[in-house]
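batch_manifest entry 22 of 60
target: Septum formation initiator
source organism: Psychroflexus torquis
requested by: lab member K.T.
priority: normal
notes from requester: please return tokens only, no post-processing; we will run our own comparison against the previous entry in this batch. if the run fails, retry once and flag.
--- input ---
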Amino acid sequence: MNYKDLKRKPWFKFMSNKYVLVLTVFMVWMVFLDSNSWLIHSELNKEIEEIENNRDYYIQEINQDKKILKKLDDSIEIERFARETYFMKRPNEEIYIIEYQDSLKTKSNE
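--- output ---
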């Protein structure tokens, strides 16, 4: 196939049009090479979605913590929380911590 035969093809005429060439170069530039390319926008959209999911998670955690703080307004609840979480005790009181076999850390369940 020589150049004259190629020139007669309709797709070659279309692709050799200067406007089509400029548009093709522009599209390739915008999709792949530009600093605001489509690829970068897709990555940024994924990051935005991930951040929004994190925001929703933290809002739920904040609401749970608010409920706990509201519950701890009572001095009896504060004492219960301190005893369960930090193993605090009253003077002249002894605390025994009982650990069950399945709650102990071993090499097999770590």
